[in-house]
């Protein structure tokens, strides 16, 4: 393995990463938790569990969901995730309508700004590509994905952005077997 | 022809005959008909022959004769002559075996041993060019000499040392190497090797690392691990090797292969364990310098773990015999650069290398008391400094974690309050910082913002370590911590997932093991004081209080206090002259139940007290309430009775047989003192209140041992009356649901557990009369009665099991739709686990019952569905219309059975079963959701445990994939609730993720074939793309996982293993 460029980065604790706070889990009566859950309520025996109205409730794709998709990608250098290294972070993800003038259009654009751990990280392009591939595989076709280096966090940020934004160059990169292997390895930890 | 000539003729092809000839000659020798000299003379013409094979056979003849002689026969002189003879002929076949025989004899002496060894050394220069078995024989002889005449060999000194090394140099066969290594190890440990260290070391180290892989079906069963172990023993055998072994092994850590590094580390650890402390000390810092990188930049977890073990082993060795802590100790010198490095890494405790630094501190400080003291003295003060200057809570938390690591080591070294023995003479160096710890942790726990849950949890865990650490805190200091915990639990609002509260409860429970007094004095009064006298329905905070009390009261003393307090609360509630809400008393009962379940009640000396108070005492009040004489309605409530019943059940199981007999007599009468109370069986026109006491009776009955059956009322001369009465009550549609279930269980219990074998026909007749009743439709209560009765009989594998199952399946085809549907749902009852009819309660549940039901029912269902399918293809619409419900009914029944048995039973029937499961997935209506969900569950388990290949073997991959994809769709015609969509996606995910059988050994390579999923790949990816836009988040998540598994896992060719 080549010498690491940043062998000792700062790590965020997994517990501190933003998560979706599940709205109070379905509580069945007062005995929902703790020791009282162990004894079934006798009236449970006959009632059939009916699917509630919540099945009809729609849950649109939001920033947290995008974050959850990419936070578990591994860094190509460390056995750590992009979330733990703060390469991706929730405030740096935004979802906007692709065509603001056409309100009925379902097209949406996801913009992700990534923050390399050091300003001269040569792997920034690979990371950007990895994020892009992950999202293209995981989002429905009506989403456009835009991955960029956050301004001021990388010495050649513009250069990298050009590369990440150029469809032709992205396509060419994805043809590259060695590169795809690196990206596949990064995504092994996505669950 | 002489015996010798015959022997030479037959020895090649008839070993038996050859042995018989030799035995004969040996007898002649023993009876003095022939002398050994004569035999040797006979050999004369052959042993000088030019043909080595012939010479070998001739020598073997002599060997065979000697082997057949009795061990005492040969005289010292004869042995000497023979030894010399064999030594001269040692290169001829059979001579080595002859020597082996001779050296076993008592009269074989030291001098002869040396002679034999010398002969081996001088004549086998070319040993490695001989066959494996010949070499093996030579090593074996050497090995024997080593074990019986070691002194003789050792006295030969250099000659034997060099001789042995020369003999084995170049050996490659694993079987031979096993022996060679063990011979060499003896030489290394017992010879004076000063002048030959290099020779000996190289002779074994040349084999490092072992790369041997046993061939498949290796009859000798030698593994690479065996060889590695013996080689490692040699390398670590003597500290004289250290100047060579340690640098060489450390060099091997430059290897790119993790396996080589692993072997090197293991060998290094072995050396550290076996070399003397002085030697270990000499290399300790060198080793640290190298291993540091393995830990700080860990490539593989196991390498870092082994490296930590090695560092810890050094610290242990260097602690041996140390009686006083001083900075001049070799141990201190070893630790100095390490703690320095760790301190540097911990300056930035959030950076990646801080974690390994913590691990290093943990391994070293737990190595010994001395090591702990030295580490604490250099590490703790700097951590406090960084802590004070830290600019953020995240950083402070990382530092608290580091301290916690040291506390864990302290517990390993000094023990907990409950640890027996092993008191340590050294004072705990942490005591110096005690007040600081208490302040910092208390501040972090109670002073931090409430949202900083994880920070506070870290502080709590650290505090807990110190509170349980033996001889550290005073009781009042632990008491302060307990007060903090009480405050968190009683006063603080819930935050998020309540992690802090959960940890606080766990901490109190842990402290209760070490300092029960503190819990009883501080926590108990505080908590009990918040319990209301009655529940006015406005506030249910008592639930969390009871929850906490239950979890910290498992220790005996605390439990007795808890029981006293709660029972008096309960008594007050039962005395109130108003209806009263049931939630609170039920919660109290549940709390008592929970704690009793956690404790071993049958070993509790107070069990009789609990029995009298709860079972006998409360039963009376139950009977009073049932006859309308109660002060309030609490004990008339079904949920209260159910909870109380569970408590009874537990207690009855735990008391003596005499008490159980009392219970048996009172199982219906309920220890009642009033005349008004009417026991349920045979009661006419009982009120709902009275009938409800069957719940209590059932739980009492369940707890009784089988031996009490004679004491149960209404069972003599037989149970027929009682059972018929119960069946009538079961079938009746007027009972409340809870009462009804109790009747069913009661019936099942009697039939399964208490009905004697010869009386089984009573139950079977009841079953038959219910099933063959002319009345159609059969009411749902009748069908449930049928199934509970069947359950009782089938679980004990009654002789009529097959008949019962056939009748049940028959009901599915009933032309009456309602009968058929209710029957279908009943199948889930048959094998499901039940809290009352359970193995814990001594029900007779035969091991094979599940398998029996499955293998009987599945073929019946399968063939019936086939019939229906064929009939459905006919155009005769009328008859098929009328039986539209039959197929779904069978599939529902199947799902019911599948949900109650393990997949291991399912696998042999998979070819029959899979088509049925696929047809279940074809159902589309909303009332089939449960069936489809159960089917998907079963499929998921099958795929997870066995991989896609089992499906492929049945040839159903395509049909399965198509149906799964259909189930993920949102479609107007098919009802696919989100749960089904998720389950179907999970199956798709598992298909791609588990392409090789789950339990296959990791070494077996999958057959290089094309994945059966490949032809489905593009279809799956296309369909799942639209599922990615599902309105429900969980579905999308499952779709993402499934899709990426297919993208990643389904490939043209199986991936090459590296």
CATH superfamily of one domain in chain A: Fe-S cluster assembly (FSCA)
The CATH class label of one domain in chain A is Alpha Beta
Compute the number of helices of chain B: 50
Give me the oligomer status: heterodimer
Q: β content of chain B, as a range?
A: under 5%
What would the average pLDDT of chain A be, to the nearest integer? 79
* Protein chain pair with the most extensive contact, residues per chain: A-B, 47 and 53 residues
Run of helices and strands of chain A: HEEHEHHH
User: Judging from the principal axes of the Cα atoms, what is the shape of chain A?
Assistant: globular
- pLDDT < 50 runs, ≥5 residues of chain A: 23-32, 43-51
Which strand-content bin applies to the residues of chain A?
Answer: 5-15%
Query: Could you name the CATH topology of one domain in chain A?
Result: GMP Synthetase, Chain A, domain 3
Class from secondary-structure proportions of chain B: mainly alpha
Number of strands of chain A: 3
Distance between the termini of chain A: 26 Å
Structural class of chain A: alpha+beta
Characterize the largest beta sheet of chain A: strand count, sense, and whether it forms a barrel. Answer: 3 strands, mixed
Largest sheet of chain B: none
Q: Tell me the radius of gyration of chain B.
A: 40 Å
GO biological process, one term (chain B): iron-sulfur cluster assembly
Main location (chain B): nucleus
Family (chain B): Belongs to the MET18/MMS19 family.
Keywords (chain B): DNA damage, DNA repair, Nucleus, Repeat
Account of the 3D structure:
The complex is a heterodimer of chains A (191) and B (1058). With 191 residues, chain A is of the alpha+beta class. Chain A has a domain at 62-187: 2-Layer Sandwich (GMP Synthetase, Chain A, domain 3). Chain A contains five helices and three strands, in the order αββαβααα. Chain A has helices spanning 63-71, 124-138, 157-165, 167-175, 177-187, and strands at 93-97, 108-114, 143-149. Chain A has a three-stranded mixed sheet with strand order 1-2-3. In chain A, α2 (124-138) links the parallel β2 (108-114) and β3. The model of chain A is unreliable at 23-32 and 43-51 (pLDDT under 50). Chain B is mostly helical and 1058 residues long. Among the domains of chain B are: 427-529; 714-901, no CATH class; 910-1049, Leucine-rich Repeat Variant (Alpha Horseshoe). Chain B is built from 50 helices and no strands. In chain B, α6 (95-103) packs parallel to α8 (132-148). Chain B is globular, with a radius of gyration of 40 Å. Chain B starts with a helix and ends in a 9-residue tail after the last helix. Residues 998-1008 and 1054-1058 of chain B have low confidence and may be disordered. Classes of the chains: A alpha+beta (191), B mainly alpha (1058). Chains A and B meet through α1 of A and α27, α29, α31, α35 and α50 of B. Chain B: Residues 545-992 form the MMS19 C-terminal domain. Chain B: Residues 997-1016 are annotated as: Disordered. Chain B: Keywords: DNA damage, DNA repair, Nucleus, Repeat.
